[in-house]
Design goal:
The complex is a heterotrimer of chains A (301), B (389) and C (95). Chain A has helices at residues 25-37, 49-54, 74-88, 102-108, 110-119, 169-174, 189-200, 215-219, 225-234, 259-263, 276-296; strands spanning 41-45, 66-68, 95-101, 123-129, 155-156, 159-160, 180-185, 206-211, 241-244, 247-251. In chain A, a hairpin with a 2-residue loop joins strand 5 (155-156) and strand 6 (159-160). The model of chain A has no long low-confidence stretch (mean pLDDT 97). Chain A contains 11 helices and 10 strands. In chain A, the strands form 2 sheets. An 8-stranded mixed β-sheet of chain A has the order 2-1-3-4-8-7-9-10, with helices on both faces. In chain A, strands 5-6 form a two-stranded antiparallel sheet. By secondary structure, chain A is of the alpha/beta class. Chain B starts with a strand and ends with a helix. In chain B, the strands form 3 sheets. Chain B has a 7-stranded mixed β-sheet, sandwiched between helices. Chain B has helices at 7-17, 32-43, 57-69, 80-85, 87-95, 120-123, 138-153, 182-188, 215-244, 270-283, 301-308, 328-337, 360-371, 383-387, and strands at 2-6, 22-24, 50-52, 74-79, 101-106, 131-134, 161-166, 174-178, 205-206, 252-255, 262-266, 288-293, 295-297, 313-318, 346-350, 376-378. In chain B, helix 13 (360-371) links the parallel strand 15 (346-350) and strand 16 (376-378). Chain B has 389 residues and is an alpha/beta fold. Chain C has 2 helices and 5 strands. In chain C, the strands form 2 sheets. Chain C has a two-stranded antiparallel ribbon with strand order 2-5. Chain C is α+β, with helices and mostly antiparallel strands and 95 residues long. Classes of the chains: A alpha/beta (301), B alpha/beta (389), C alpha+beta (95). The interface between A and B is large, with 46 and 43 residues.
């Protein structure tokens, strides 16, 4: 008996044929999220990997209404869509989403994001966090973790890579006292689904930041995306936390592994293993992880 | 109904009559009264619009972009620095062929900081794909906004329109204007019916990127449609006259040009002063005419040629200069006349920058220096300040 | 396209609107040099592979019968690496 043809309904939201790298954590996470969101939505998307690999005219991997404007204005475009739907009386039925990478969200779009939160728009904004400006060639962003090598924060004789800790945008989002903020990871896909659903169950501004491993940018073989993402969470460097109306309401406990187990899997941290001074940086990273574990209560005492 | 209202109020009433679904603006002098009036109208339920109080002009334009893409009519207003900040978005809106109307209140550009009127700001957006109309008085301001939505949303155009009005001179002065009724405007301007929009029942992707094999043709179509929009501007002006009983629009406003030897080309409210001055010069025996450009984008090449080729001398009065080049409108007037068998000499006089008053003396100086052979100069300069250096 | 009164309006300007799902014409299958082989006897039906595939090209015909669409599978191997039961192996494609 011949097997039925593979079918891809537009209602999935995000379809194959896109040009993401093989093993792209972002493509996987977007797909997972869109299956929860469903077809009754409108997506505004910033310039970046996702936008570029999903919409080279005349191809589009989107099955839902989708708009790309500029790099830094996605929260404002989403606000405008939301205002229009509200004026048309359609906001109850159609959900508005904003998508952007870490560069678009934490850096260049920061002001617009804060404005959207402050005005209370009914928009779910999801930041796909691969920790650098990946689409333009792996340049450092405000989300690049401490001591990671990027093309604009390279390791060298005078540098151990990024010399600033990661900007804590989820905490900043939570400080706006918006209904729901959460961090998530592509590797914990059931948790990601739950958080997308939870975000959709409330109204008002909601922010999700999803850690999405990037094989070329982080420097690992593409089949390992799930494992690398798991290690980031389990060592405490990417805490999975939920805030509601400004207060932490839930965290995902971890077993805790040394940060080295995570760092050694990726080329962007390899320089730290080559010298004593580099290993001193690893200790600092461990301190950052320990601080994160302590702050969010990630380990059961 | 005839009312004595501030220019900003005239804008707000016109915009309100156009039934916008989303209004979004950021305050900046001298646009503030417009957005304040609109806010009060929304607060009182006189307009049924969402008013989005954004955190920057870049976001104001972006909110409008999203709103139009989602199928609602949108409006914003800005000036000067705000226009510069939203410039990136304005290019994007035009490139995405989204119809909307923005009031470009004309104000000078920093540095140095100045809140006073000139036309540097909107002229800096002349390459953006936005159509631009320049008003002389507040009646025209009011009428142009209503026409602008019709022009912009026309299937043959699908380009956004900027209605330009001189800051303070028009925004903050009280004039008697005739405000149409809601019924009249509804009959003239139907509800926004997008050719394409973001809609889960008919999902489309907007804003995909274009490779080198496609980008040029997309831009060609924008240029082609922008030029063709001139016919729509004229059509809408004629329909406006039929519907509202007055002529208020079209591309040129010639004043005593038919037999003029010297024609001054100008845009905006200064034409009012120039017309009074022309009358005085005519009394003294000089055959002077004033040719006001109402529609600057698309640039009305043919109409300008026809209006100017009979003159012996043309002087362009500029409230802007392209630094390192020529007066902006001057260069375009010269370009329109290029290659014609009989071309009068065209001088460009930059004046009125940063709110500097343009008086009869300034206009006299312009004519004197043009007749003396100067082609590009600043008029009304306080030379004593320069010599003091 | 949104039309009014059954009167045909013009098409959108060139390049402005892109059709949904038109990426399906771009078969990314040829990208990969590997292809996943699913051992249905070892499969536990956990759905991890289908969940995390970046292309979304894995489906199940029955609770423990998974397969990947050769038209779109880029051969990244994430499914094989993530499968808790070791039921997926990546094999070189034969040309």
């Amino acid at each position: 008996m011949a097997e039925p043809e593979f079918e891809y309904e537009l209602t999935r939201g995000f379809l194959p044929g896109h040009r993401a790298c093989a093993g792209c954590g972002q493509a996987a996470a977007v797909r997972i999220a869109m299956e929860v969101v469903g077809p009754r939505c409108i997506v505004a998307n910033a310039t970046g990997c996702l936008e570029v690999f999903s919409t080279p005219h005349p191809e589009s991997a989107w099955g839902v209404p989708w708009i790309h404007s500029l790099f830094e204005n996605t929260p404002a475009v989403a606000s405008g869509i939301e205002a229009a739907l509200r004026n048309q009386g359609k906001l109850g039925d159609i959900r508005v989403l904003g998508f952007g990478g870490d560069g678009a969200t934490l850096d260049i779009g920061f002001g617009a994001l804060s404005g959207m939160f402050e005005r209370g728009h009914d928009v779910l904004y999801i930041c796909w966090d691969n920790e650098a400006y990946m689409n333009t060639g792996v340049q450092r962003s405000g989300s690049t973790p401490f001591a990671a090598a990027t093309t604009t924060s390279p390791a060298g004789t005078r540098s151990f890579g990024e010399n600033r800790p990661k900007k804590n945008l989820p905490a900043i989002a939570a400080a706006h006292d918006i209904p729901y903020v959460a961090t998530a990871s592509m590797s914990y896909f059931a948790d990601l689904r739950r958080k997308v659903k939870k975000a959709l169950d409330v109204r008002g501004p909601r922010y999700l930041q999803v850690h999405v491993p990037c094989p070329p940018g982080w420097g690992y073989e593409e089949h390992l995306s799930m494992e690398v993402g798991r290690l980031a969470v389990e060592c405490g460097l990417y805490p999975l936390v939920e805030w509601e109306n400004g207060q932490i309401t839930r965290v995902r406990k971890i077993k805790k592994i040394p940060v080295e187990d995570y760092l050694k899997t990726q080329r962007r941290f390899r320089h730290l293993f080559r010298s004593d001074a580099g290993r001193e940086q690893i200790k600092k990273i461990q301190e950052l992880a320990d601080e994160s574990i302590r702050k969010y209560g990630l380990v059961d005492e | 109904m005839r009312k004595m209202i501030e220019g900003s109020r005239a804008v707000a009433e016109a915009v309100g009559l156009c039934r916008p679904g989303v209004i979004s603006a950021y305050p900046i002098t001298p646009q503030t009264h417009i957005v304040e009036e609109l806010s009060q109208m929304v607060a009182d339920g006189d307009i049924n619009a969402e008013y989005v109080r954004v955190e920057s002009e870049h976001s104001a334009a972006s909110v409008c972009l999203g709103a139009v893409a989602a199928g609602s009519r949108a409006y914003s207003a800005t000036t000067s620095q705000g226009l510069m900040l939203m410039a990136e978005v304005l290019y994007n809106i035009a490139g995405m062929r989204l119809p909307m109307v923005i009031t470009g209140v004309n104000r000078s550009l920093s540095a140095p900081l100045s809140i006073w009127n000139d036309q540097q700001d909107t002229l800096a957006l002349r390459d953006s794909g936005w159509l631009q109309l320049y008003a002389e008085n507040n009646q025209e301001v009011l009428d142009m906004h209503i026409q602008a939505y019709r022009i912009s949303e026309d299937d043959r155009v699908l380009l956004p329109v900027m209605v330009c009005m001189d800051g303070f001179i028009l925004t903050h002065t009280y004039e008697v204007v005739d405000v149409p009724t809601q019924e009249q405007v509804d009959a003239f301007l139907p509800p926004y019916n997008p050719l394409y929009k973001l809609d889960p029942d008919d999902p489309y992707t907007l804003g995909a990127y274009a490779g080198p094999e496609l980008y040029q043709e997309i831009r060609y179509e924008i240029q082609r449609d922008a030029l063709a929009a001139k016919a729509v501007v004229k059509e809408v002006a004629a329909e406006f006259q039929a519907a509202f009983g007055r002529w208020s629009g079209d591309v040129l406003d010639p004043y005593r040009c038919e037999d003029a030897e010297t024609i001054i080309v100008a845009m905006g409210s200064v034409a009012g002063t120039a017309k009074d001055w022309a009358d005085a010069r005519r009394e003294a025996g000089d055959r002077i005419g004033i040719l006001r450009l109402r529609c600057y984008r698309p640039f009305p090449r043919e109409e300008l040629r026809e209006a100017l080729t009979g003159a012996r001398r043309v002087i362009v009065l500029e409230k802007a200069v392209s630094v390192g080049g020529y007066g902006i409108v001057t260069a375009e007037v010269r370009a329109a006349l290029y290659g014609q068998p009989k071309t009068p000499p065209v001088s460009g006089a930059v004046c009125g920058l940063g709110g500097r008053d343009i008086t009869f003396d300034t206009l006299d100086e312009m004519v004197r220096r043009a007749e003396g052979g100067e082609t590009d100069f600043f008029a009304g300069l306080r030379t004593e300040l320069l010599e003091a250096q | 396209m949104t039309t009014t009164n059954k009167r045909e309006r013009r098409k959108p300007p060139l390049g402005i609107v892109t059709r949904p799902g038109s990426s399906l014409r771009n078969k990314t299958g040829p990208w990969g040099i590997q292809t996943p082989v699913f051992d249905w006897n070892k499969c536990t039906g956990c759905n991890t592979c289908e969940s995390i595939c970046p292309e979304g090209c894995i489906r199940h015909l029955d609770r423990k019968q998974y397969e990947a669409d050769p038209d779109f599978c880029k051969g990244c191997g994430m499914c094989a690496a993530a499968c808790p039961a070791g039921a997926i192996t990546m094999e070189q494609k034969h040309r």
